[in-house]
């Protein structure tokens, strides 16, 4: 089982590479389009459905600075696929180079346990958890902006900061009353 | 892969300290490629950041010590809480700094007399008015709250008194028959015993008198005094 290694390849000059992993392959398109609009650095976006990644692309794939798992809360499969993909990543990724992005958190058909489960997963891995709104253009732009902030740090573009430093600030924590029934 | 960290870690060592001084160096590069001086600096900074990360990862494996899981857990949670403490400290300090910056900016703005400053002044006045009102209302709330507390205290006191009185009454009710009836019973019995005694005495006396009257064959109908005495003899039944 070949895992993705964060330091197996040389970093690209003035380039940041991000891997968007989404089971539905729906939001990653619009997000990728918004991400490449960035002009100050060259952002290279790779899309994947789930891990393990196809072996034939191993040579051409650049070094991935940030892996983003996009979880659609309305489908349980999305969450399970993301969880199953985690074991294909080297542990070096979890020091600030993995991010979880959640869509459809406001939908009423979402059971509260799924969001709690995602929260627990993100908190146990010490990764940031972002919420994105994928229906509107503004939402996609906002999500891309926030991702870019984390991506720039992971690719080394922000002086005196590394993704490990940033992960201390963006780490998601569990609310203390997560086990108690909520008020909705 | 092993070659790269060795080469770059030395460059990295210089970089972290001397990144400012190196600014003057790549002057001639603007003519060579499309990338400008600033871009070159940025790229160099990026590379040094990446190398720093790789170096950290390499060094992470060097300081290993074996310890039990619980000790590791403890150390880990200690360090996490230390991290959290520093985070909150830094956050609060940033907030304070931002506050100071904002106030300074607002001051500067108000000193200039443009229409924006006027709008700012108007907003300021409104805020002050609101604050005064808030203070007033808070004062009133406090007074009302005190009154409520007083009333509640009184009510509680009343309840307590009522409770006490009820208990007293119940006590009295249950206790009243007892001492009275006891004394009463004793006196009653004594009186009754006395009555019986005197009754017996009088009956005996009457029987004796009746016997004497009959035996002596005294004509008591004619004498009124004797007749009264003889009449009273009929009142009590002859016992035994």
From TrEMBL, chain A:
<keyword id="KW-0137">Centromere</keyword>
<dbReference type="InterPro" id="IPR020987">
    <property type="entry name" value="Centromere_Cenp-M"/>
</dbReference>
<keyword id="KW-0158">Chromosome</keyword>
<dbReference type="GO" id="GO:0000775">
    <property type="term" value="C:chromosome, centromeric region"/>
</dbReference>
<keyword id="KW-0539">Nucleus</keyword>
<dbReference type="Pfam" id="PF11111">
    <property type="entry name" value="CENP-M"/>
</dbReference>
<protein>
    <recommendedName>
        <fullName>Centromere protein M</fullName>
    </recommendedName>
</protein>
<dbReference type="GO" id="GO:0005634">
    <property type="term" value="C:nucleus"/>
</dbReference>
<dbReference type="InterPro" id="IPR027417">
    <property type="entry name" value="P-loop_NTPase"/>
</dbReference>
TrEMBL record, chain B:
<dbReference type="GO" id="GO:0007052">
    <property type="term" value="P:mitotic spindle organization"/>
</dbReference>
<keyword id="KW-0137">Centromere</keyword>
<dbReference type="GO" id="GO:0005634">
    <property type="term" value="C:nucleus"/>
</dbReference>
<protein>
    <recommendedName>
        <fullName>Centromere protein H C-terminal domain-containing protein</fullName>
    </recommendedName>
</protein>
<keyword id="KW-0158">Chromosome</keyword>
<dbReference type="InterPro" id="IPR008426">
    <property type="entry name" value="CENP-H_C"/>
</dbReference>
<dbReference type="GO" id="GO:0007059">
    <property type="term" value="P:chromosome segregation"/>
</dbReference>
<feature type="domain" description="Centromere protein H C-terminal">
    <location>
        <begin position="39"/>
        <end position="234"/>
    </location>
</feature>
<keyword id="KW-0995">Kinetochore</keyword>
<feature type="coiled-coil region">
    <location>
        <begin position="134"/>
        <end position="201"/>
    </location>
</feature>
<dbReference type="GO" id="GO:0000776">
    <property type="term" value="C:kinetochore"/>
</dbReference>
<dbReference type="GO" id="GO:0051382">
    <property type="term" value="P:kinetochore assembly"/>
</dbReference>
<dbReference type="GO" id="GO:0043515">
    <property type="term" value="F:kinetochore binding"/>
</dbReference>
<keyword id="KW-0175">Coiled coil</keyword>
<dbReference type="Pfam" id="PF05837">
    <property type="entry name" value="CENP-H"/>
</dbReference>
<dbReference type="InterPro" id="IPR040034">
    <property type="entry name" value="CENP-H"/>
</dbReference>
<comment type="similarity">
    <text>Belongs to the CENP-H/MCM16 family.</text>
</comment>
<feature type="region of interest" description="Disordered">
    <location>
        <begin position="1"/>
        <end position="37"/>
    </location>
</feature>
<keyword id="KW-0539">Nucleus</keyword>
């Amino acid at each position: 089982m070949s895992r993705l290694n964060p330091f197996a390849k040389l970093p690209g000059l003035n380039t940041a590479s991000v891997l968007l992993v989404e089971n539905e392959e729906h939001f990653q398109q619009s997000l990728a389009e918004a991400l490449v609009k960035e002009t100050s650095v060259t952002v290279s976006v790779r899309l994947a459905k789930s891990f393990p990644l196809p072996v034939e692309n191993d040579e051409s794939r650049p070094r991935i600075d940030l892996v983003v798992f996009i979880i659609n809360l309305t489908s349980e499969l999305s969450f399970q696929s993301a969880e199953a993909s985690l074991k294909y990543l080297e542990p070096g990724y979890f020091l600030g180079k993995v991010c979880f992005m959640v869509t459809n958190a406001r939908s009423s058909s979402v059971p509260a346990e799924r969001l709690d489960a995602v929260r627990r997963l993100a908190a146990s891995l010490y990764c940031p958890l972002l919420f994105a709104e994928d229906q509107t253009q503004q939402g996609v732009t906002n999500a891309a902006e926030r991702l870019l902030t984390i991506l720039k740090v992971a690719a080394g573009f922000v002086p005196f900061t590394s993704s490990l430093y940033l992960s201390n600030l963006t780490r998601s924590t569990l609310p203390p009353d997560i086990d108690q029934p909520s008020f909705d | 892969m092993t070659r790269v960290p060795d080469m770059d870690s030395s460059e990295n060592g210089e970089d972290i300290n001397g990144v400012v001084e190196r600014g003057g160096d790549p002057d001639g590069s603007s003519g060579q490629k499309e990338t400008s001086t600033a871009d070159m600096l940025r790229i160099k900074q990026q590379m040094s950041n990446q190398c720093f990360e790789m170096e950290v990862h390499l060094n992470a494996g060097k300081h290993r010590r074996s310890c039990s899981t619980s000790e590791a857990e403890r150390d880990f949670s200690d360090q996490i809480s230390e991290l959290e403490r520093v985070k909150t400290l830094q956050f609060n300090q940033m907030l304070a700094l931002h506050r100071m910056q904002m106030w300074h900016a607002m001051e500067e703005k108000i000193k200039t007399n443009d229409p924006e400053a006027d709008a700012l002044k108007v907003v300021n006045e409104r805020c002050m008015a609101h604050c005064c009102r808030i203070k007033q209302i808070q004062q009133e709330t406090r007074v009302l709250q005190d009154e409520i507390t007083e009333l509640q205290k009184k009510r509680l006191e009343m309840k307590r008194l009522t409770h006490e009185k009820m208990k007293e009454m119940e006590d009295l009710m249950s206790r009243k028959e007892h001492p009275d009836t006891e004394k009463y019973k004793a006196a009653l019995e004594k009186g009754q015993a006395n009555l019986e005694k005197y009754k017996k005495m009088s009956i005996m006396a009457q029987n004796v008198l009746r016997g004497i009257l009959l035996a002596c064959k005294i004509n008591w109908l004619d004498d009124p005094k004797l007749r009264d005495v003889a009449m009273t003899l009929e009142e009590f039944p002859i016992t035994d």
